[in-house]
Amino acid sequence: MNCKNNGFSGSAFHKLFWIVANAYNEYVFGKAMEKISEYNANATAYLNSCIEQWSRHKFDSTVCCDHNTTNFVESFNACTKPFRDMPVFSLLEAIRSWCMQRVGARFDKAVDMEEGQLTAYALKELEERTAESRLCYATACGGGEFEVRDGHVNFPIRLATRSCACEKWQICGIPCKHAPRVIYDQRMNPHDFISPWFKAAAYKLTYAEHIHPMADPSQWPDFGLPSIQPPTIKRPSGRPAKKRKRGANEPKKGKRNTNVKCGKCREFGHNSRTCKSGGTSATGPSTSKSGAAGASTSNGGPNTRKRSKAAA
Fold this sequence. Notes:
Blueprint (H helix, E strand, L loop, with lengths): L1 H4 L5 H11 L4 H14 L1 H7 L23 H9 L8 H25 L7 H13 L3 E7 L2 E6 L2 E6 L4 E2 L3 H5 L6 H7 L14 H7 L78 H15 L2 H10 L1
Antiparallel strand pairs: 1-2, 2-3, 3-4
Helix pairs in contact: 2-3, 3-4
């Protein structure tokens, strides 16, 4: 959205932007930025001003997190959608109840986890990358170094430093698809090469506390304090809004986008029914077919002959 506000948009730019954003190493990042420079040099200058905030290859490797979107925030907003039309106190109480249930389930799960056990997310990622590693070929170079061939590209790997040339292993903390090929060839356990942030000890520490149940407000102790009344305001007409307010440059939900092409004037942004230019439809295969159909009807086809015989 920030790029769009600065005048950089389009399907080509959108595709190149996500290639740059998801790049784990400098090489892929540079190649994609070169293509963006060919598309628009000003866009490259704008993107280079804040690389650390959105490009994965600039993320801190000690954090072991490669998320470059706000999907978790959108998920939270979706969960609070049924409570948005409530008063502030009722809204906060509904959110507290939802968080208490969610954290409580993870608290019970953390208690039952064994020492060294992986989280569900890490285990799923490891299984997917292990399946992808079957198409890779590893060559031992000595000294704990290996060369893994993935298609037509070679990737050096060092098990001692837990590093791969693709740099995905260093950023996310879980072995990339090249590492399992080496780990299994050396008869090692891939769980030993995953960051401690994805193991039971960190999970238990994260959910060591849970939200305790709370009594109804009518059962709270009385401290003799004056009760705060809500402000006297007039309730607006209509139903309270539940949908979030979209930005000025965001497309309206349910509205047609600019990719719709008119069949009359051949312009984008509207269709032939809402066309105001008054242009005529271009001649094409459909016109020729209708003309042929009309000619066959006027000359009398096989169906016409059958009708005339039946009438006789």
